[in-house]
Amino acid sequence: MFNYMKKEKGQGLVEYALIIVLIALVVILSLSLVPPPVANVFNNIASTLGGL
Predict the structure, then answer these.
(1) Which candidate, 20, 8, 30, places its Cα nearest to that of 38?
(2) What is the pLDDT of residues 23-47, one digit of tens each?
(3) Other Cβ atoms within 10 Å of 16 Cβ, number
């Protein structure tokens, strides 16, 4: 019985990792499809934060 519980816990960890990867891919793809003026705003924010 305890062996089954360990497998289930590991399965949950893998599922959370897959969800995080999926969310990251959606964010990256959506940011790559934004128009250039919006991308410039993000670049300005990133350069400002990088200079801190």
Answers:
(1) 30
(2) 999 988 887 887 888 888 988 999 9
(3) 10
